[in-house]
Write a structure and sequence with these properties.
By secondary structure, the protein is an alpha+beta fold. It has one domain (about 30-185): Nuclear Transport Factor 2, Chain: A (Roll). It has helices spanning about 1-20, 30-50, 55-60, 65-70, 75-85; strands at about 90-95, 100-105, 110-120, 125-135, 145-155, 170-175, 180-185. Strands 1, 2, 3, 4, 5, 6 and 7 form a 7-stranded mixed β-sheet that branches. Strand 2 and strand 3 form a beta hairpin. Helix 2 runs antiparallel to helix 3. The longest helix is centred in the N-terminal third of the chain and has 21 residues, at about 30-50. It is globular, with a radius of gyration of 20 Å.
């Protein structure tokens, strides 16, 4: 009986070690794929909202805190939609792979954020979009949803290292300033 218990314990330990790897084909509990699907679902919904100029849909995607912490979310949505020139054609990952995953625990409560860059293409321009998405937040439930949407023209991506604004919840539209650095225009 002890031998069977020992064998079962070894198998449980073996599968738990396999499940912690981020590579290989034997992942037992793969949350990375699920996280990827979650953030891609948000990007797909955002893409459709931009394509149809649906302000209400964009607002519904945002977390309550993103809306609350914005000076004027409706104006930010309008600036965002006006910034995207042309008819939307497609979106894709900028870097293939899993999103950046951040988790926090506080008093037994869990918070999770996913971050990823995407490329949005129109018939006139290409844009980089950075999403921060919280699929759940037991610490502050009002963070659930898209916490941040950052957009800039693809050609301006090298200017990100000289960014002169703080990353804030809500929508951030970045454009070159007179000195050619990126600044928030909304």
């Amino acid at each position: 009986m002890k031998k069977i218990a020992y064998i079962v314990l070894v198998f449980i330990l073996m599968f738990s070690l396999i499940s912690c790897t981020n590579g290989g084909s034997m992942m037992f509990f793969n949350t990375v794929d699920y996280d990827q699907e979650l953030i891609e679902s948000q990007m797909e919904q955002l893409f459709k909202a931009v394509k149809h100029q649906n302000r209400d849909e964009i607002r519904q995607l945002l977390s309550k805190n993103a809306i609350k912490n914005s000076k004027n979310i409706d104006e930010d949505i309008e600036i965002f939609l006006n910034f995207v020139q042309g008819s939307t054609i497609s979106w894709e990952y900028i870097v293939d792979g899993c999103p950046i995953i951040g988790e926090a625990r506080e008093d037994g409560k869990l918070s999770k954020q996913l971050e990823k860059w995407y490329l949005l293409k129109t018939d006139k321009q290409s844009y980089m979009i950075y999403l921060i998405y919280s699929p759940y937040d037991e610490i502050d439930p009002e963070n659930k949803g898209l916490c941040s949407i950052v957009i800039l023209q693809e050609e301006d991506n090298l200017k990100l290292e000289h960014l002169t604004c703080d990353w804030v919840p809500g929508i951030t539209v970045l454009a070159p300033s007179e000195d050619d650095s990126l600044v928030k225009i909304n």
